[in-house]
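Run folding on both entries below.
>entry_1
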Amino acid sequence: MLKATSISRSFGEKEILSDVSFSLKPASINGLIGPSGGGKSILFKIIANTCRADRGWVTFPQGASHRDVGLMFQEGALFDSLSVYDNIAFPLVGGKVPTTGLPREVRQEVCDKVSYILARVGLTRAAYKMPGQLSGGMRRRVSLARALVARPKILLLDDPTSGLDPVASSVIMDLIVELHNEYKPTTFLVSHDLRRLLPVIERILGLFDGTIAFDGTLPELANSAPAFVRSFVSCRFELPAPSPVIDAPVVQ
């Protein structure tokens, strides 16, 4: 189980995260929602150990560490000077790119893994293009492939459909679900596209004002979430009708 305990982080005098705690079940697919600038990206970077918390800690499942985390950054963070192939290979070779300088047996293993994930995201023909030659949707798929290529036990995807048109967004979200079903990493998704996010996740965590204001399922969100959380969601997604309250029978 991936567990965050009392995570806090400030920048100057501004507290971004305040005593954030939660746990994620193995092989689950979860969503993190909340207003822009609310600390979601910082939380992901803390889990992936690319940013340090001021207080608190992250506990990984037995046998796992931050090295078993695949992080897709919100901004994509592709290396513009590297081909699509070498961008995706980067996590496999510890940054030793281009891969042509590696021993032959290592090159072959890397090639097999990169070729497989390129095919899964539909970018085989773009393997030796540069990021600047790609559309926004293709760049997103490269970022997703890089996060997935090592088959991480924990997958953090920070707004993978940001800036994409509805068709491209649907393709990316369908691909994420398909790949999650394929090998079951513990998956944590941030997305502002709640119409596509909420139907595919098992559990929702709401990060508001630096704290976890809601943690539960979609029906629980509709029935028992704080009013400000329901209001945030209902502006972007049609919530299911709350379950009617049934009074207990009166015993005569």
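>entry_2
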Amino acid sequence: MKTVSAKKKAKLRRSPGTQKRIKLGPRFLRAFEFAAEKHAGQTRKASAIPYIAHLMGVASLVLEAGGDEDLAIAALLHDVVEDCGGAPMSKEVRRRFGARVAKVVDGCTDADTYPKPPWRERKEKYLRHLAAADADTRLVSAADKLNNVRSILSDYREVGEFVWARFNGGREGTLWYYRSLRDEFLRHAPNRITRDLELAVNELELLAARNSPPAVEP
């Protein structure tokens, strides 16, 4: 029978989520209602899935990684500035949920103006921003990207190369962006989210390589 070493037991005791109980109170419920209201009518790309499903998924990942109530709230609201009002919405988030939540939400926003800048320009700017972002922002951002890439993988298995038509960056741009995100998050000490993001992006690359369009001869 295989036994668990004392060192491994100590590591398990110190793992995120096992150190202390995370309490979710009325603020979290208010944030959920706020997110559901602001994103009402929005769906995930090329689907009928309510957008709140993505926000719930990101919040779940953050809590499972040991994030506290502020970070769970930021996860629920991470797209509200970008998709539901721009800079004025950032001020409302700060007023309702506090400076720490607003800072993380702003840190997960790649554009707060309309119309948005060109796609590649926005993504390159966001990658530069992540390089200097604080740990709170990186945690929520990594959870967002992990939830997204898992969704892409699931859809890719179902519809194949048609999945790329959903994204402004197309096939090559989307793959470039998620590779860059993976590499950026791995520059810091890994956590359960960044490790899972690495695995998911690697799997997406493998699937894409197997389904590469044939080269066009000159």
